[in-house]
Batch of 2 targets.
Target 1
Amino acid sequence: MIMKKVMMTALVAVAPFFYGCGEKTDVVESGTYQGVVEEVEAEKTEIYVKTADDKLLELYFTDKTSLTQNGQTATFDQLKEGSKVEVQVEKVGNRLDPVAVKIME
Amino acid sequence: MSEPTILRTELWHPLTVHFPISFLLLATVVKAVALILKGERSVFWQKVGSFLLVLGAAGAWLAVYTGNLAEGTVARKICDPILLKSHELASLNMAWLFTGAFVLEIVQHLNFLQKKVMVLRVLTTLIMVGGAGYLIYTSHLGAQVVYEQAGGVNVPPSDCAGL
């Protein structure tokens, strides 16, 4: 019984460790990719896009990033988790600069 | 002329990381030493280790917070944000491990597993050793971001104009 309590306590103590294991992001070549917005971090104007081939792209918007929807300029708050997007990225070193982001729906 | 250094948000991170680094590494050593000591000396060093752990764990989360603030600026400028992401993930693992050790400390102080105090102490120390490993790795990655990629650093012109 005591041993069970010890094991439970140990599990509780290390459980956050597994929660803390976030996802790694990927680097792709410059080009255009379609995917789904997995996460939006508005305060950092940053999005995570999961591509069709299961790559996770972390994109920080720059002053030069264009954001459009139906051919019109869109605002960052129109990007939602689950939105389908097409992103044109430029690879600089291992950094992916989003050149253009189109909201597809 | 650039803005005053302290007002740059990304510099709050180096301002806050060094306390948890020193507190948590010292806490791990102290807790390990306390395990092999006996009697009053063991009790004393266990308490010292506990205080360092509490201060260090709180400091670690503050460092995670300031690191998150710095990320938005630094990730847009460095050449390898993947390294920054590894730094972030390692720091979260480190902070959670020390938080786990802190939870075990609370369990000990509440006398919740009274007859297994030694087991809890060993377990706490082992988790802290794991946390210390992540702490060293996190620090190494952080140093790479700064010293190899100039993350958060204002690089002066080669002629030092304006300084």
Target 2
Amino acid sequence: MVHSNKYILVYSVVMVVVVAVSLTIVAVQLKPAQDDNIRIEKMQNILSSVNISTSEIPKKEVINVYNKFVKRAFAVNMKGDIIESHTEKVFPIEMANELKKAPEDQILPIFVATFENGDSAFIVPLRGKGLWGSIWGYMSFKPDFNTILGCVYDHKSETPGLGAEINTEWFQKYFFGKSIFDEQKEFTSINIIKGGAKDDDPHGVDAISGGTITSKGVEKMLRDNLAGYVAYFKKQMKS
Amino acid sequence: MSTDNSIKVKDPWFSAKNLKLLRNPFNMENPITVQVLGICSALAVTVQMKPAIVMALSVTIVTGFSNLIIALLRDTIPSRIRIIVQLVVVAALVIIVDQVLKAYVYDVSKKLSVFVGLIITNCILMGRLEAFAMANKPWPSFIDGIGNGLGYGLILVIVAFFREFLGSGKIYGFDVIPQSFYDAGYVNNGLMILPPMALMTIGVIIWVQRSKNPDLQEKN
């Protein structure tokens, strides 16, 4: 059957409008549930950076566990001053957006986890680029603001089996106990060394074989993100 | 399909003819092993059972409903833009499925990542729309879509079963290989997790299927 041009035009317009309207309705309806998932995932990441695994417990429980351990959060600037101390306002800050701003305008969040034995840990978010797409994570520090207590990384689309290994436990464990300042209290960050770091190197970890560019991405992410916190960390170390 | 529909007013919903539409894709007309359609996602999402099952269900829903919608519209679709119309219908359904997965099974949707979006380009869909839904009534088209989706899903689940079992020692996320095996020196085969082994597994499935069905073997 041959249809006229007019018929085809009207047909396409009607079709597009109907599809657009129905997709909009679906998107608007499902938005709250999706946002909740993203919030909960962020909580899970923050918790796993202090080595509390929440992968086995139901979604709703995660919020309770999070509220139990992470009671406080604040944000600092490059100079090391606290500029935001409302915990609820700190949570939605996206590191990815902050890194786009000029360094002096960045608002850098710190989450404080308090454990049952009274110890605390200070958690900072990380955002960076791997080989194929973005990578991100959280890193927690002991109260000396130098020693790494734990960390968690994840990625959007790194190569499975190679760069994608950054989200596995064996790679993340390398960072535990390493320190980001040397003896003169100078910021060294963590170097990810191809061919393997020396056993006694307090600032170096092994790179992933075959995942060099992703490993370098993690290294750059740590250096770039942690640099903003150096002033605040140093202030805390002195006091 | 030589039955003249104008004489028989209505087929029973699950007539022998319709059941055949549902059953055929499982074996003699399997989209993956016989028609060799939809291979790409079969390689990508079969490392574990759970994503494979979710992917199979997603594809089944999309094939079923896109076939149904296209069959309903088939007399109104201008033939000059029929591919575009089919794509719009498929794309809309895929976006809805993707959104629903993001809202209700977030972790699985992260694992499936781009592959849900890529259902749009899954060859099974366009193949069934062009070959079946454009020329048949809605109900048989719907059954045909569901059948093809499930036929695709069956292969996905079989491949995922072997890859997860041999590659990670798990089935649907549960450990099945006892610790004593590992203590005795058993090692998971990391190669099974890589995409090439999915192709090999599918190859073995095709081999087994063909050796059991002489009809599928080439004559010369």
